[in-house]
Amino acid sequence: MSAANSFYDVTESLKNYLLANEVTNQVTYGSLADVDLNKQSMFPLAHIQVESVNLNDRALSYQVTILVMDIVYDRKESMESDADGGDNMFTGLDNEQDVLNTQLWVVNNLTRSLKRGSLRDGTMELNNEPISEPFVDRFHSKVAGWAVTYDILTPNDLCVTYQDAVGRLVNARVLTQAEYDSITPNENTYYLIQE
What we know:
There is one protein chain. This protein is α+β, with helices and mostly antiparallel strands. The protein has two domains: 6-155, 2-Layer Sandwich (Alpha-Beta Plaits), CATH 3.30.70.1700; 159-194, no CATH class. The chain has four helices and nine strands; from the N terminus they run H-E-E-E-H-H-E-E-E-E-E-H-E.
């Protein structure tokens, strides 16, 4: 992952992981207001929002909020008790708790993968202990789910400081040989070719 592509790498990696979990039907990106939440066929849904990126010398720190959600359906039962003798006063007349349980599983697996699974591959690292916040909202349909903000670190290899042959500290762009061959070098810029 080069810093020039790390934004794409982060968002694509998260999208691909979420789609592979056998629960999430669709992943969207950007402002949630731009997503047509009235389309019931898109649920269960995961939504990615990049909130900010801290530009440090050695790392880019992405604050990414992931929202996972599904439609809450009403059950056609009385408030007294369900057929199994359960208490509908606790579980309610819908599947809200089922949705929250399933969607918590989705973000828990995502968190685990960022900490010590396939998403922590040397180029992405979780830099916080995320907190999952439940939500229940009414759009055209009632949806429930979880919002989690992750602090994800990626290497910032676009520019490094090093000491040149004469002892001066200089900034240099780090490029692969193929990247270097594809640009017109600037005479005022130092380049380090990574192997």
